[in-house]
Amino acid sequence: MYVHASRYHEVVEGVAGIAHSIRMGSPLLAETQMGPFTNCAHRDRVLQFVEAGKSEGARLVTGGGSPDHSGAYIEPTILTDLTSRMTPVAEEIFGPVLVAAPFEADEEALQLANDTMFGLGASIWSNDTREIRMKRRGIKAGSVWVNVRNALDMALPFGGWKNSGQGFDLGEKAVLGHTRVKAVVQHFT
Predict the structure, then answer these.
(1) What is the pLDDT of residues 128-163, one digit of tens each?
(2) Which residues have a Cβ under 8 Å from the Cβ of 185 and sit 6 or more positions away?
(3) What is the separation, in whole angstroms, between the first and last Cα of the chain?
(4) Fewest C-beta atoms under 10 Å: which of 41, 124, 178, 185?
């Protein structure tokens, strides 16, 4: 999460409050907002990313542990004070871990967002149409959402750029990925 420096601390504090209030538990219960991982190996892998970030100098704002639930749970976690080369920024974590950093100018935000070998998805949150237009064109990711996150539609292709994924799911692009083109020319005399 890259936030303009003028609002960085306010936004990080607000998101941390939301993360801290998320109710974890069985996905079979209506009050549950976040369930466990499917297995402990995945949980442990995500926790290793968090620990690597802390050992590299990242600051833990909230979460970072596995609560006392029977199952593969991880508390929603926020890390700050990171650089693009630190493990939690440089890798795809696939867990409830948010890394946050400030930026001063739009061009810097794009540079930070693209300074990765991955590019699955990104979201832009703004009411400034010029900023939105510039950032959505400049972000190198397979999906870019504006003022929304993870809004999927069966008609839209979903997949990553760079080292994120192999091809696309959903939409015409996915169907075409399972076809083979053949040109046949026949002449009748």
Answers:
(1) 998 888 888 888 888 888 888 877 777 777 777 677
(2) none
(3) 66
(4) 185
